[in-house]
Specification:
Blueprint (H helix, E strand, L loop, with lengths): L6 E2 L2 E5 L9 H12 L1 H8 L1 E4 L4 E4 L4 H12 L2 E5 L6 H14 L5 E6 L2 H16 L9 E4 L3 E4 L4 E6 L12 E5 L6 H16 L5 E6 L6 H10 L6 E4 L10 H11 L1 H7 L14 H6 L7 E2 L3 E3 L9 E6 L9 E7 L5 E9 L7 H11 L4 E4 L1 H13 L7 E4 L17 E3 L5 H16 L3 E2 L3 H8 L1 E4 L2 E4 L5 H13 L3 H6 L3 H8 L13 E2 L24 H5 L13 H7 L4
Parallel strand pairs: 5-11, 5-12, 6-9, 6-10, 10-11, 15-18, 17-21
Antiparallel strand pairs: 1-2, 3-4, 7-8, 8-9, 13-14, 14-17, 15-16, 16-17, 19-20, 19-24, 22-23
Helix pairs in contact: 1-2, 3-4, 4-5, 8-9, 11-12, 13-15, 14-15
């Protein structure tokens, strides 16, 4: 039945902005009560469509919907893990409706993995709004598939989740629907670009809901919330919380679609891909640790310590904002090996990257540096020739192999860096798998863990299912390096034999032989080329910084790296 002779743009169910409405005393009291008690508002004035009878009924919340509503009203950040078809959209839509009715100048972004899914949420909110009594409505200024705005300055916009989703408006609340289904690189870009802005407000809110889909960013954010690593409040809805779902329902779904389908879609379990390099159970168990210190690009997990040995593997990108140039510092003093630091920068070019590797290598006791040479050959040569860094790893090509031109011949010329071809990547992946699964390499870095969770079989090799795998490739290079005997000779730790003792499964025997290492002390006379950018002084602990005697790290304290690492503390 029409309520307004002249609605907004011909819609008689909503009134046009500027239309006056008179309130009775009872309506004024009800308005205030709805404002003070969101659950009262929802259960007395929000109508939804009954799917069985195709008629409007008042929304009577289930117990888990009341928990969702309570958390979303009382907490700033909320993450919800739930099964399919449990009334999630109805509950969240009612919460968002309350926020625009009882605030002024309040902006909400509804984002989903697809734009039409976000617009579906907005359509539910619009239906609820149209069926409110006229004294609860406000005049409408904009009313379309992608955005609604009312005369109090409140609005809701629907968009696909992307790094640019939140541009153009100021938002007080962001709702991310089915966040686990957003491509990993898009989800990470969104979180890094949008979340700091929304989190900077004192009253801003973030709501995230999703059914699990693999071990992705949603899994990380959920795990961090449950383990109290973040400020997110969490709500978990179980499959049998939903009325009508019993063992007969479960067995019916399993019989039709399989147990894995039920576990993920209805059991709301995080099911790892069977195609990942590292087994799903191991990936599920992996937990990151917070770095001791960090900058925009470098995360420090261990200070350089005297008496310990380190090596660095480095992946090289173009520096155009796509893939990252990445470097991982490993403590190889003893097994299990540890990650000491991770560098990751998508904008550094190949001219500046050797300077970063130089400073990082010098900081970690002239660590051996293995550079991927497919794209990074110039980086390795610049590091050795221009910076006169003598501990750059070189490899040799050999005859007698049909794979990637690799074979065995010590007469072959050496080459700085490592060609990542089918053979070397296979060896690196095989060894990395054994190292991680047998707890001989502890991966503590969040980026590394996320990349391993999407590092899957792709075109008969391993690569990122989507997004970046730059840090993962540094780990693969370390896996290759471990197999070459260099670390065993240097540290007297035969990890390969240790892994074989722990795991009797045969490790792939084919490998590219390690060439040789350029080793030696620091240059007596020449200074390295000074670089700009990272300030590395904080790599030293307080004892190192404040020690009066010069550190016994060779004569490089006289060089430019010393100034960056030790600099004046003030």
């Amino acid at each position: 039945m029409a309520r307004y002779s002249v609605g907004f743009q011909g819609n008689p169910r909503v009134r046009k902005a500027g239309t006056s409405v008179s309130y009775t005393p009872d309506q004024q009291r009800e308005f205030i009560k709805c404002h003070m008690d969101p659950l009262y508002f929802v259960e007395h004035y929000v109508y939804i469509k009954n799917v069985d009878f195709e008629e409007l009924v008042l929304f009577k919340t289930r117990f888990y919907q009341k928990e969702m509503l309570d958390k979303m009203m009382s907490c700033r950040d909320v993450i919800v893990k739930l099964p399919r078809q449990c009334g999630k959209t109805t509950c969240v839509s009612a919460v968002l409706l309350w926020h625009i009715l009882f605030n002024k100048n309040y902006g909400i972004l509804v984002a989903a993995h697809k734009g039409d899914k976000a617009r579906d949420v907005l359509a539910v909110i619009k239906d609820m709004y149209e069926n409110l009594p006229e004294w609860l409505q406000h005049g409408v200024k904009e009313w379309n598939k992608g955005r609604i705005e009312i005369e109090t300055g409140c609005f809701i916009r629907a968009s696909a989740t992307s790094g640019g989703s939140a541009r153009g408006d100021v938002y007080n609340c962001i709702y991310l629907d089915e966040f686990a289904f957003v491509a990993s690189h898009v989800a990470e870009e969104f979180v890094k670009s949008v979340m700091p802005t929304i989190s900077s407000g004192k009253t801003t809110k973030t709501f995230i809901t999703s059914t699990p889909r693999g071990l992705n960013l949603f899994h990380k954010m959920w795990t961090d919330a449950v383990e109290n690593r973040t400020n997110f409040a969490w709500v978990e809805i179980k499959w049998d919380d939903v009325p009508g779902r019993d063992q007969a329902f479960k067995q019916g779904i399993i019989a039709r679609y399989g147990e894995d389908y039920f576990n993920q879609e209805y059991g709301a379990e995080f099911v790892g891909s069977s195609r990942t390099l590292i087994t799903g159970s191991k990936l599920m168990a992996m937990r990151h640790t917070e770095p001791i210190k960090s900058t925009d690009h470098l995360k420090l997990y261990q200070y350089p310590e005297k008496g310990r040995m380190y090596c660095i593997t480095a992946d090289v990108a173009e520096g155009l904002g796509g893939d990252c140039s990445a470097a991982v510092v490993f403590d190889i003093t003893q097994a299990p090996y540890q990650i000491a630091a991770v560098y990751r920068n998508r904008n550094i070019d190949t001219m500046a990257y050797p300077g970063v590797l130089f400073d990082l290598g010098r900081a970690y006791h002239n660590a051996m540096v293995l550079v991927e040479s497919n794209f990074g050959g110039d980086v390795a040569r610049t590091l050795q020739n221009d910076y006169e860094y003598e501990n750059v790893v070189a490899t040799a090509r050999h005859k007698g192999s049909t794979k990637g031109g690799q074979g065995i011949s010590h007469a072959a010329k050496t080459k700085l860096g490592l060609d990542m071809n089918i053979l070397t990547k296979r060896v690196g992946c095989t060894n990395l798998k054994s190292l991680v699964e047998q707890d001989q390499l502890f991966v503590c870095d969040a980026d590394a863990i996320q990349e391993l969770r999407r590092f899957v079989v792709k075109n008969k090799s391993y690569a990122a299912e989507d997004g970046n795998d730059d840090v993962a490739m540094c780990l693969v290079m370390f896996g290759w390096m471990v197999d070459q005997g260099y670390i065993k000779d240097l540290t007297d730790v035969n990890v390969r034999q240790k892994v074989m003792d722990l795991n009797k499964d045969k490790i792939e025997e084919s490998m590219t032989p390690f060439g040789f290492i350029y080793d030696g002390g620091a240059s007596e006379s020449n200074n390295p080329v000074a670089t700009k950018g990272e300030d590395w002084r904080w790599l030293m602990d307080d004892d190192e910084k404040n020690r009066d005697p010069e550190p016994d790290w060779g004569d490089w304290e006289k060089e430019a790296a010393f100034e960056r690492l030790y600099g004046k503390l003030n």
